[in-house]
User: Fold Asparaginase from Pararobbsia silviterrae.
Amino acid sequence: MTSSTFPLPRIVVVGTGGTIAGAAPTATQTTGYQAGALPVSQLLEAVPGLDTFARIESEPVASIDSKDMSTALWLALAQRIDALLARDDVDGVVVTHGTDTLEETAYFLHLLVKSPKPVVMTAAMRPATAISADGPLNLLQAVRVAGSPAAHGRGVLVVFAGRIHSAREVAKTSTFSIDAFASPETGPLGWIHDAQIEFERRGERLHTVATPFRLGVREADAARAASSASSPGEIQVAPYAIDGALPDVDIVTSYAGVTRIAVDALVASGANGIVVAGTGGGSIHHRLLAGLSDAADQGVAVVRASRVGAGHVLHNGAASDDRLGFVSAGSLSPFKARVLLMVALASGLRGVDELQGAFDTF
Assistant:
């Protein structure tokens, strides 16, 4: 068989900056570097033989340290990825990103991108100028996964240190290790070793084309959503486009001796939602709880998550959540719960039933 009979997949590599594109004064320096210093085209040059298994295009969307990621850039990135995947000649997209907020960006795209084609995110813990930089191999593996038919329909994936993770489940778990990402409660979806790609399972939650959240809704979609009968908590097609700034949603943490000062300040500033990183299974100090209860009474969406890093927060119904007007985050971290709450509010979901339905579904 010839390559003309079965052409190589076309993969677009989208750069956003991060450590993978970082540069330091010396090759022995892995801290104090400038993130996003190198263009994505230069990152590709450091991966030998890339053109032997994919036809590569590249384009920059940003050149930032991912600690400075913004919701405006999330929206722009999702729009650009949707446009690229709409091309018949594009088989997948790889996004290079910083590690600090990669899990948040990945989950946002997991909810918003409207294509079954693979979107694979990758990053690095060492700058591109460092001895044994991990970026080139991570990028190589990400491109290979993005070009694999087995990656279709799995939502947004994160490829890092030979493992393939779901965007919903992945988290950064180390400040320095080159094996810095894990899926704490579920484990990875699969792995890649040289040219061998193995998927061991699928994520069960709805994602990408199966979610009602979208950046732009056709009038026919809106009319169909308006005319559809729905039961409490059922998710329908979003009634309007997410075409502007996302709602203001912030995170507060429960800990020994915490006050309600932060909650009251957020409410006074006009916050649309608050996620609380509770102790244990989502428990909340009584002073913070009083502030959050008052916030919910004033129409602020309140979601209970946990600061633990694994496990889940159960919806306790009439015992507390329903009485206080709270939503439980389930197995989502506080940071991903914030992402889903912003997207849900921007899509017109309101009230405990509708919001809890979104957290139970996605």
Summary: The two ends are 42 Å apart (CA to CA). Residues 217-240 have pLDDT under 50 and may be disordered. The longest strand covers residues 55-64.
